[in-house]
């Protein structure tokens, strides 16, 4: 198996080749229908299959497909991280963390062999001509979020929510970067909510922007390679870049490209990127939203 995936498509191909992907060809709605089918599938023994909805009836004029339940079994979760069993990652971490200070040339060489590959995990600059995530760029009045098939999951949800977004932010002095997963409620064609709990890293950056009276640039990637998606959810110590975790899991750094309208970088191989700002004093009601915690 591949030890890392360039993008979400490679992972979907792997699931297909291992008989773990069910293609749904019938027309289905992003409004409650996809979530209902997914809910039933995911509750099957072993977590059911990953589902690729190829024909989303209300998904906008470009009719993008929707994939769900990708990480819905222990096997698929391990494969997403490039291993057959997540304990392999535990062993890799242990072998680095348990390194005793080397004494003598032989031990220095052995330690170097373990540590040198870590240089590969740093994020890389995208060097190609056109980053996949920037093949189509829409700005200003052309931006229309209804073109992306964002799901409404539960009847009493307040609307449609992007629930697996990779939210990229930086501190006002640009010295610290954060990648977190904070859901976005779609309010209208070019406005979303930004639901970061007050103790989350990006919320701390937001406090710094607010204190400085500046609006905060934000970039959101939707659909990236699975290790990077996972890393966005990892509660790393504040100030530690989640992209290093992603690079460690993948065994190679994530390719980053500069955003078009804000001073941030995003994974070049993402499916969609939203760029915008959070205003320092703009608050709105968000939800209701049926979270996995049951309310
Ligand atoms: C599917 C999913 C959705 C999440 N949605 C939110 C959210 O809306 N708001 C939030 O503050 N945390 C949310 N979390 C939890 C954060 O992603 C998690 O606490 C992460 O560590 C935050 O990154 P940070 O530590 O860099 O702030 C979500 C996690 C998952 C797996």
Explained architecture:
By secondary structure, the chain is an alpha+beta fold. Among the domains are: 87-120, no CATH class; 121-278, Roll (Pnp Oxidase, Chain A), CATH 2.30.110. It contains eight helices and 13 strands. The strands form four sheets. It has a four-stranded antiparallel sheet. The chain has a three-stranded mixed sheet with strand order 1-2-3. Strands 4-11-12 form a three-stranded mixed sheet, with no helix packed on it. Helix 7 (226-232) runs antiparallel to helix 8. The protein is globular, with a radius of gyration of 20 Å. The chain starts with 7 loop residues before the first helix and ends in a 17-residue tail after the last strand. It binds flavin mononucleotide. Flavin mononucleotide binds next to strand 7 and helix 6.
Task: Write a compact overview of the structure shown.
The protein has 295 residues and is an alpha+beta fold. It is 26% helix and 18% strand.
């Amino acid at each position: 198996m591949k030890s890392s995936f360039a993008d979400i498509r490679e992972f979907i191909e792997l699931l297909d080749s291992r008989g773990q992907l069910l293609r749904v060809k019938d027309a289905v709605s992003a409004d409650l229908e996809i979530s209902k089918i997914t809910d039933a599938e995911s509750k099957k023994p072993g977590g059911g299959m990953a589902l690729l909805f190829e024909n989303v009836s209300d998904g906008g004029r470009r009719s993008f497909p929707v994939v769900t339940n990708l990480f819905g079994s222990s096997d698929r979760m391990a494969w997403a991280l490039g291993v057959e069993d997540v304990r392999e990652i535990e062993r890799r971490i242990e072998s680095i963390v348990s390194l005793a200070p080397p004494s003598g040339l032989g031990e220095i060489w052995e330690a170097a062999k373990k540590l040198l590959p870590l240089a590969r995990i740093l994020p890389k600059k995208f060097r190609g001509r056109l980053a996949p995530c920037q093949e189509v760029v829409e700005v200003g009045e052309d931006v229309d979020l209804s073109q992306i098939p964002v799901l409404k999951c539960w009847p009493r949800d307040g609307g449609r929510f992007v629930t697996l977004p990779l939210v990229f932010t930086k501190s006002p002095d640009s010295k610290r970067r954060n990648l977190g997963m904070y859901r976005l409620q779609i309010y209208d064609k070019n406005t979303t909510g930004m639901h970061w709990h007050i103790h989350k890293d990006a919320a701390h950056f937001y406090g710094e922007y607010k204190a400085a009276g500046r609006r905060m640039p934000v970039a959101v990637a939707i659909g990236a390679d699975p290790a990077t998606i996972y890393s966005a959810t990892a509660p790393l110590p504040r100030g530690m870049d989640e992209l290093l975790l992603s690079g460690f899991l993948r065994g190679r750094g994530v390719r980053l490209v500069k955003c078009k309208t804000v001073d941030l970088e995003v994974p070049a191989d993402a499916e969609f990127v939203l760029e915008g700002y959070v205003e320092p004093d703009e608050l709105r009601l968000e939800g209701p939203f049926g979270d996995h915690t049951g309310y």
